[in-house]
Amino acid sequence: MTTSTLPSSRPPVKLRAADQAYEAIEGLISTLRLEPGAPIVEAELVALTQLGRTPVREALLRMVSIGLIQQQPRRGLVVSNIDLADHLDVIQTRRVLERLIAACAARRATAAQRQEILRRAERMVEAADRDRLDEYMQADHALDVINHQACQNASAVQCVLPLIVKCRRFWYAYQHEGEIAEGARHHLALAQGIASANEAAAMLGADQLMDYLEKFARRVINN
């Protein structure tokens, strides 16, 4: 009797309603459809997500806990502002976690996950070549999802997710300062390291990606 094939035969885990609400609202915030300083109207989010007040409220509480949403006197909940100086700390913290996740993914990913990681990075390159920012960001998110599954390090993923959202929102706010083709190349290098089970190459790819994001942030701050 063998049990090693059982995990791969399981159907995908369905997201809880609160997780679905979180992803939907996070998308609105990270793409600036909910701009910094915008008030949070719970009824509008319930109507938009069609998930009910309880999951929306739970999602909002999670966002307050990680700083994406703030509670202000007399104003209630508002989308937090982008702190330029703090963003460099966000990147430095994310760098440590991304190196760890890359190494774990290179070591632990299944063959199917390695292929999917590489395929999604290649989609980023294709989107960048066509200068399609929305497609690029969607492929970026898809790459994060499979990479996080492959690394099998829930603690690191839990810590890095809020930082990724902050970086994504920063990018949308200042995309005129960036070059997505360069970003796509670094994502591809990271993916190639993971796909080839080369921990050193994967960590180098993660470092180069964070170097790119830091350079982008410093260009924004200095301008």
Condensed summary:
By secondary structure, the protein is mainly α. It is built from ten helices and two strands; from the N terminus they run ααααββαααααα.
Question: Which terms would index this structure?
Answer:
single chain, 223 residues, mainly alpha, Arc Repressor Mutant, subunit A, Four Helix Bundle (Hemerythrin (Met), subunit A), two-stranded antiparallel sheet, 10 helices, 2 strands, 73% helix, globular, disordered N terminus
Model description:
The chain contains ten helices and two strands, in the order H-H-H-H-E-E-H-H-H-H-H-H. It has 223 residues and is mainly alpha-helical. Helix 6 packs antiparallel against helix 7 (133-151). The longest helix has 25 residues, at 84-108. The protein has a two-stranded antiparallel ribbon with strand order 1-2. The protein has two domains: 17-79, Arc Repressor Mutant, subunit A, CATH 1.10.10.10; 84-222, GntR ligand-binding domain-like (Four Helix Bundle (Hemerythrin (Met), subunit A)), CATH 1.20.120.
Which helices and strands, and how do they pair?
Blueprint: H1 6-9, H2 17-30, H3 42-49, H4 53-66, E1 69-72, E2 76-79, H5 84-108, H6 111-129, H7 133-151, H8 154-173, H9 180-195, H10 199-222
Antiparallel strand pairs: 1-2
Global outline: globular
Work out the helix count.
Answer: 10
* Structural domains: how many: 2
Spatial strand arrangement across the major sheet: 1-2
By CATH, the superfamily of the largest domain comes out as GntR ligand-binding domain-like
Give the radius of gyration. Answer: 18 Å
User: What class do helices, strands and sheet pairing give?
Assistant: mainly alpha
Distance between the termini: 64 Å
Q: CATH class of the largest domain, please? A: Mainly Alpha
- For the residues shown, what is the average pLDDT? 89
Percent of sequence in beta strands: under 5%
pLDDT under 50 segments (min length 5)? 1-13
Largest sheet: 2 strands, antiparallel
Helical amount:
over 70%
CATH architecture of the largest domain: Up-down Bundle
Task: Count the E strands.
Answer: 2
